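Q: What does the assembly look like in three dimensions?
Context provided by user:
Components: two
Sequences:
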Amino acid sequence: MEILTLLSANIRRKKGSFTSIILLMLIISMALTAFLSISKSTRASIETAMNTADAPNINVFIMDDFYKPEIVAKVRNHSTVDRAEVVDSVAVKYSLNGTIGHNTWFLRKYDSEKFPRLKDDFSGYSGNTQKPKKGEIYVTQGILTSEECKIGDKIKLYPTTAPYEQYVTEMTVAGVVVEPSQGSAMIGWKQIFISDEDFDRMFTANTERSNCHIAQIYQSPDCTLSDAKFERQLNLDTGITDCAVGSLTREESIHYTYLYTEIIVSVLMVFLIFLTVIVMIVMNHSIATSIEIDYVNLGVLKAMGFSKGKIRAVFLLQYLLAELIGAAVGFTLSIPLTGAFCDVFQPIIAIPNENTLAVLPSALILAGILVVSCLFILLGTRKVGQISPIRAISGGREEIYFDSRLKAPISKRLLSASLALRQLTANKRRYFGTVVIVALLTFFMLTITALGDTVDSESALEGMGLITNEIGVLFSEPEKYDSTVGGIEHIIERHTTIKKKYFYATGYVSLNGENLYCMYYENPDVLVISKGRAPLYDNEIVITPIVAEGLNLHIGDKVTISKDGKTECIIAGLFQSVNDTGRCFATNLDCVRKIGIKNVNYAGFHVEDKSDLKAIQSEILNTYGAYVECELNEDGNLDDTFTIAINAMKAFIYVFSIVFALVVVVMVCKKTFLQEKTDIGIYKAVGFRVRRLRLQFAVRFLLIAVIGAGIGSALSLWLSGRVLTMMLWNIGVSSFRVAFTPMTIAVPVALLCVCFFLFAYLMAGRVKRVDVKELITE
Amino acid sequence: MKNMKNNQKTILSAKDLCRSFAHNGGQVHVLQHIDLDIYEGDFTVIMGASGSGKSTLLYSLSGMDRATSGQVLYGELNIVKAKENKLSELRHTDFGFIFQQMHLVSNLTLFENVAVSGYLNKAASSAEVKKRTNELLEKMGLEKVKSHLPSQVSGGEQQRCAIARAVVNNPRLLFADEPTGALNRHNTTEVLDLLTELNSAGQSILMVTHDLRAALRANRLVYIEDGRVIGTLDLPPYNAEEEHSREVQVNAWLSSMKW
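A: Here is the predicted structure of the complete assembly.
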């Protein structure tokens, strides 16, 4: 009972710190539960949609020319295969509002049971089983996102090899369906659905040999291989993927579909871990100063017979109660937050989210945080044992509350600043925690800012192997490449200088049986090699560190690449690429010619002056438009989706950093203020004005922020690249080169410092309320 | 100043000064209609029993506390109505203050405690403040411990430092609230000797005490009871050799005040 009485009295008296702990814990609990729930429900939604669609373990896309029924028969008879079905499709390119799309779509007949339709507002399944009518197409929500189109839009479909006007079919987007294997905005190739009548007409016409057969291969239940190993084994034994234009396993589909969510959630989870550490530091500081300030009361309690255990129990209950309230409220608030986040991610994932709360994992992690915080509280309350009732009753706490004799000089000219520095150096242990907090916040803010800046930095992206070009020319008839490319270069050079040019093509090629994305260059010397050298000879390739790790390959190893033929190559080096999330390799044109690939079909130009791009494009199209497409990339090097995601993460981290800075400043200031009330009174008594004292207080916190920000910046310069590499490894970034500019560091550091200064200045408004009468001894 | 006492100018003048506090739903009138003049060069001591209102009077006169009504005139300035910034200015230009509990800033050295106060004076350069601080500390016998923190020196040394701080800006009036209240006999004598010495050099002092030995140093005693001034006694300047006869005279006067 006595503990409860003390507990309620403490909470009443320390409402501020009680509320702050509730607020901090609320943020952590809310964000943690929401992130875990998003993760859980996204995976569950993908899995459910996959099951509904009866998604195979491997989808293999084989163009009609290369389709051999005997290979499919071999696959069906393979011991690891349960069944294999072949679905006919028509491979098309598309154009929307005059812009030709980058990806390939595979038109199929619609099956309403496997690919249910979504409501018009995408809030769930509509239950409508109506098939598309003649001239209509059903697309996935991912297409609406990546192509920025909507229901009712007209889309022109072309054969994959060229935008031949005589073969164009115009169709209307009439519905949105869930196709989980390739429906996400993160996957380029799409399966879309048209009416049976349209399909039969197009498939029979087989325009420019655009018919494609999708072999859907289901693994035997007895086979325990991963999808990747299953595909590799199957290809080695049957050559099924060697004859295909591409393939996609179920595991890859899930990985790509979930990738966007995963990256954001993992970045935010790491930030959350840092915030949790900050909460522990804040709590520890709060306990330490509470004991110092309440020395007399605690001494009196001891004199009354309260054991140190009981006093520590009061502290424990007080902080634990605040944490529990914060955790409970945060948990409740995570329900709408999860829904809101899922709504944000749905246009990318293209599957309605089940919105299930991750109750158990969240509860377990929160319980873990509470246990750790109990340890922190118990550690922090050790000082209770050292309180002497006699000293407490006879005069209170020790006269000198500061822990250092470091004497920073006091000067007349910089009186406020030098006094602030003295107050800081004389109490440096008290501010240690705050410095650590600022350092952590700075580190995170700089890391996310660096990520954003790198996305905008041409040189940094180039350094990471991301090709930047403003003009891209796609040759619909690769055989015309050699006779045309010189003319195109000439057109560009009439307008501006070409800084760099890339001549290449891409496709899926097997590497030791593993079907990988391959980039083959006419000029492989443009590749940015991180280790070894570029693949200059016709028996050399370079691989990404992700492929090297996944297939246990090293520079100098011999590998076999196969497509329409096989050849042995040596790994000449490592390079970085985010294509197919890093599961790719690169070589030269001479090398892939040995396996049946004829020519490159793409020329990219990185130019000096970007002001004349439109004129260049129009000149190229006027001259060579019959067999080339020309696209411009005027701004931004990465997809808008990524930029939006990075900006969203930046906003989240900045906002929460500032909220945490505010809470930390409020808590530390309050305690400091209580401790220094007498000093403030003295300063006022000798003639210091309120404004000067407030300034002095704020300058002290500015100094703390500057020190913390300095440490955080140094940490960021040292570790941000590694942290980002770790976080972005899944999308193929094996060595993140951070593009630090003075502004990358200056903006977040200045923001934090200004916040600390302002918050402290506002908090120091309490100086007004300190009366010199405090010094009077009656 | 118009009011004069033996050709002495009035520094501070209280007119109909009242100070009340809310207590248990009612009002406690600690100071009631006080009229009092403090003269330049005087060592004025306010005496009275515990709870008589002597400290409240000191703080109301110095502007540390705001009177409920009435006036405290410092020249043309009514301290009761003065703005906070004006009072801050007065505290580092015209007034000095010594507290019973010394109240030195604990993380500043003795030198810095004095100099910081001096730095507030815009008219003095940094070098002048340092010179004056060193002189004062030497005068107070603190030159050997000037780099020490308050916690490293005795109570007497702390109070002498507080006195140095109070006079570093050459105030016209030095307020002292029971400056010897927290000191032992030896330190009390040291502090009183210093105050007497300062007064002899022309420093006006207004001090509150209930210590008879401290009161003997005054040349003017003001007795306060239940918030009213009920008597004053003018004495010749303090002379240690005549302390006994002075003590008899003051004792007799205090007895007449029913002390």
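Follow-up: The first helix of chain B runs from residue 54 to 62.
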